[in-house]
Amino acid sequence: xxxxxxxxxxxxxxxxxxxxxxxxxxxxxxxxxxxxxxxxxxxxxxxxxxxxxxxxxxxxxxxxxxxxxxxxxxxxxxxxxxxxxxxxxxxxxxxxxxxxxxxxxxxxxxxxxxxxxxxxxxxxxxxxxxxxxxxxxxxxxxxxxxxxxxxxxxxxxxxxxxxxxxxxxxxxxxxxxxxxxxxxxxxxxxxxxxxxxxxxxxxxxxxxxxxxxxxxxxxxxxxxxxxxxxxxxxxxxxxxxxxxxxxxxxxxxxxxxxxxxxxxxxxxxxxxxxxxxxxxxxxxxxxxxxxxxxxxxxxxxxxxxxxxxxxxxxxxxxxxxxxxxxxxxxxxxxxxxxxxxxxxxxxxx
Length: 349
Known about the structure:
By secondary structure, this protein is of the alpha+beta class. Helices cover 31% and strands 32% of the residues.
């Protein structure tokens, strides 16, 4: 096993070992070093050993979604399982008055396979737990976000457990603007979680597009903030801050409006990773059609209510800068001509 080793082509085996951060050459070289260092060739079959390790890793990978990201717990349990499996085998041979080295030497293939499964299986669980764990200073991610995790998200102190948007389009009364205008009025509710095990400063900037921007209400944990206070308002928008305790969950609510032209559009999303997002679009004034374009990596469910309102729900987690773009246009004007891009028609609502 110490000869020249060529990497195998990319395929199933490479992807299988890649889930553990390994390559075929890593496994072969490590096995060769262990066998030669402890002179195990006399007792164990090197070929059966490698096949046993690979098969154990493959079996463990099938149950990867159920492996906890709590690495210390999984590592401790893995060591306990290895000790129990090998200890039980040694006890059985001892009670039957058999020598362990002699039995292994005379039954090399089966003994090698048992030892490979007994060690590689628990070790594989520990490795997968380590690779999927969050940063040691953070609480574990919710399941939906864990499926979409990236290294930056794993280290995010704040996430939105739920995001709710409530939109309403109204006819604008701004004679100085000339052409037809609409007011986009909204209420957003973020339920935020500080995953850090230390105090963290939450700071978010709310800056709707359009003109004639106006804020009606802002609150953090039902504590109303003065949305017109100079220290909160700037040309960049409304800034809300909150000093969050370790593991604290709190709520942010903002109500505002701004004026847009017809046609027009607005991006709807969140700067923080969100475990859930629900968008409600109220029935617009007569003569307006509404369209949406999905900017999420996962499907969005749409439900049109009898009232004409539309509920759009993210079926899985929404990453930062994802969500939807909301378009509106005059009835009968094709959106491809007026807005120049492909959209999903929600309907004339």
